[in-house]
């Protein structure tokens, strides 16, 4: 195997998705700890606590230096290089989260054993489904009195529409939680919250008398459970997993370190190495010798006065080397990349290169846009970077009408960056902002003030959702005649239907069956 093939085959790039409070931060921290990337558990938590202590955007701003470097956590584990991409989950939940999922090859879904499948889990899984991203499920908090495991699997299957293949099975829960049985290695791992890694002992075989010694009457319960589970559940099928149709399921307790190592091992053993990516003209294979990648996220950086920002590029093929020149395909310009950020946590010497699967950050002053492709010269354009129908809307107003031009320019640029979406109704001069998470509005207001010198006010407006329209000119004209107040253009000049409520949207869809009302739109 060539060095390049080897380097790429050892990459695992994934994100964790979950509903708030299911345990994503805890699990992230434990994964880093098991991976040797942090010495003391608690570092991530401290950061999150700081983030939560205030909802003031100015404070968030101060945290940014940290959040840039923590957006991607890279560490070696076994023979692999793991890239764990952070997806903000709480009030800073936004389109960034969704787009980050386009930059991974797989995801870990955390489910709280008490609460089961929750609203945000459903949304995030639907985003993963756009690309059939393979999902590993971790059912967390088995140390609490949760729901019956079989019921949880049923719920995942029926609500999320994905088959479950249990890899481990819990022995009791809450006060009676004693560990897990691994269905494929026929081993039992005993839970001990006092033990350093959450595990006191591992034994081989369900019939092992040691099992009865350690957990008494629960041993026979387990044997019966396993017989049932083997009969009633799906067996793991790697193909189905890679196609996003089946998820292997692990049980554990992240806060107690339990089950975390099995999960990390599963990422190494089961999850895919970097996959081929579609571009407009062809598929791009990760082992191609020439570099290519796309921008999935842009983050304003420490010094907003200089419009200083970092473009996060997912490397799709080849190797990145510091000092090399890359072509920004959208402008045709060639950029010398000397100051790229790479994310290897431990070994600073290796940070001068990155391979397919890795992420690099490129500082710039607003010249790099969301969805941009970079290559060594070829005119490639990666596709599949989505915009999502916003769920929150605001009307932008300014106190000083002389600043109208700056406001428009600022909003256009922030929309290009993906910080917000911008809609212009066809019959009025309003500027309507759309967002997936409301914190996006605070960010935009703050940045308009500091970067563009515009004091903006946001008024609530009566839209509930938006759909991108695809149809013949005649059909679109007919729709515009019928509902002029609902028609708008987005930042790219695409027609959009702004609906005050679901009923209105449904009626428009029924009346114009030849028009497609799209909930997601690809930027490219
Ligand atoms: P996030 O919002 O998904 O990032 O969740 P956190 O990691 O912040 O966890 C939410 C809460 O659940 C915190 O109080 C954690 O200490 C707690 N938690 C996480 N894992 C476990 C677990 O295995 N058992 C129990 N009992 N609590 C947990």
From TrEMBL:
Keyword Transcription regulation appears in the UniProt entry: no
Binding site for GTP: 18-25, 86-90, 140-143
Predominant localisation class: cytoplasm
Domain Tr-type G stretches: 9-275
Compartments where located: Cytoplasm
Record keywords: Cytoplasm, GTP-binding, Nucleotide-binding, Protein biosynthesis
Similarity remark: Belongs to the TRAFAC class translation factor GTPase superfamily. Classic translation factor GTPase family. PrfC subfamily.
PANTHER family from the UniProt entry: PEPTIDE CHAIN RELEASE FACTOR RF3
Function field: Increases the formation of ribosomal termination complexes and stimulates activities of RF-1 and RF-2. It binds guanine nucleotides and has strong preference for UGA stop codons. It may interact directly with the ribosome. The stimulation of RF-1 and RF-2 is significantly reduced by GTP and GDP, but not by GMP.
Entries under NCBIfam families matching the protein: prfC, PRK00741.1, small_GTP
Protein name, UniProt field: Peptide chain release factor 3
Organism (species): Zoogloea oryzae
Gene: prfC
């Amino acid at each position: 195997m060539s060095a390049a093939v080897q380097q790429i085959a050892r990459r695992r790039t994934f994100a964790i998705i979950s509903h708030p409070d299911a345990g994503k931060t805890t699990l992230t921290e434990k994964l880093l700890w098991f991976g040797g990337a942090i010495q003391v558990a608690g570092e991530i938590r401290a950061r999150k606590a700081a983030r939560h202590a205030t909802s003031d955007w100015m404070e968030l701003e101060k945290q940014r230096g940290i959040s840039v470097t923590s957006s991607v956590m890279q560490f070696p584990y076994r023979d692999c290089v793991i890239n764990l991409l952070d997806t903000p989950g709480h009030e800073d939940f936004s389109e960034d989260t969704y787009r980050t999922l386009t930059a991974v090859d797989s995801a870990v879904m955390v489910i709280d054993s008490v609460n089961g499948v929750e609203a945000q889990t459903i949304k995030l899984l639907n985003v993963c489904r756009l690309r059939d991203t393979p999902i590993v499920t971790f059912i967390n908090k088995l140390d609490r009195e949760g729901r019956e495991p079989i019921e949880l699997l049923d719920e995942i299957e029926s609500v999320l529409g994905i088959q479950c293949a249990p890899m481990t099975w819990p022995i009791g829960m809450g006060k009676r939680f004693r560990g897990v049985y691994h269905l494929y290695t026929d081993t039992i791992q005993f839970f001990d919250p006092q033990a350093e890694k959450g595990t006191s002992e591992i034994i081989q075989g369900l019939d092992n008398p040691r099992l009865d010694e350690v957990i008494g009457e629960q041993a026979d319960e387990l044997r019966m459970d396993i017989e049932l589970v083997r009969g009633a559940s799906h067996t793991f099928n790697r193909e189905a997993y890679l196609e996003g149709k089946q998820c292997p399921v692990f049980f554990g307790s992240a806060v107690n370190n339990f089950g975390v190592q099995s999960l990390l091992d599963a990422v190494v053993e089961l999850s895919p190495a970097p996959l081929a990516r579609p571009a407009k003209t062809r598929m791009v294979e990760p082992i191609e010798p020439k570099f290519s990648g796309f921008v999935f996220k842009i983050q304003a950086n420490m010094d907003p006065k200089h419009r200083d920002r970092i473009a996060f590029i997912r490397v799709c093929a080849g190797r990145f080397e510091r000092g090399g020149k890359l072509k920004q395909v959208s402008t045709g310009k060639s950029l010398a990349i000397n100051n790229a950020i790479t994310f290897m946590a431990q070994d600073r010497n290796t940070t001068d290169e990155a391979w397919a699967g890795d992420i690099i950050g490129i500082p710039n002053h607003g010249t790099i846009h969301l969805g941009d492709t970079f290559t060594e010269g070829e005119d490639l354009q990666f596709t599949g970077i989505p915009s999502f129908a916003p769920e929150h809307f605001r009307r932008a107003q300014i106190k000083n009408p002389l600043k109208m031009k700056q406001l428009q320019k600022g909003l256009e640029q922030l929309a290009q960056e993906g910080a917000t979406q911008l809609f212009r109704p066809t019959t009025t001069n309003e500027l309507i902002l759309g967002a997936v998470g409301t914190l996006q509005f605070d960010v935009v207001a703050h940045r308009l003030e500091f970067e563009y010198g515009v004091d903006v006010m946001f008024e609530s407006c009566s839209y509930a959702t938006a759909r991108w329209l695809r149809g013949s000119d005649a059909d679109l004209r007919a729709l515009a005649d019928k509902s002029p107040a609902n028609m708008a253009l987005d930042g790219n000049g695409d027609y959009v239907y702004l609906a005050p409520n679901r009923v209105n949207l449904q009626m428009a869809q029924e009346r114009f069956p030849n028009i497609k009302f799209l909930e997601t739109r690809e930027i490219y």
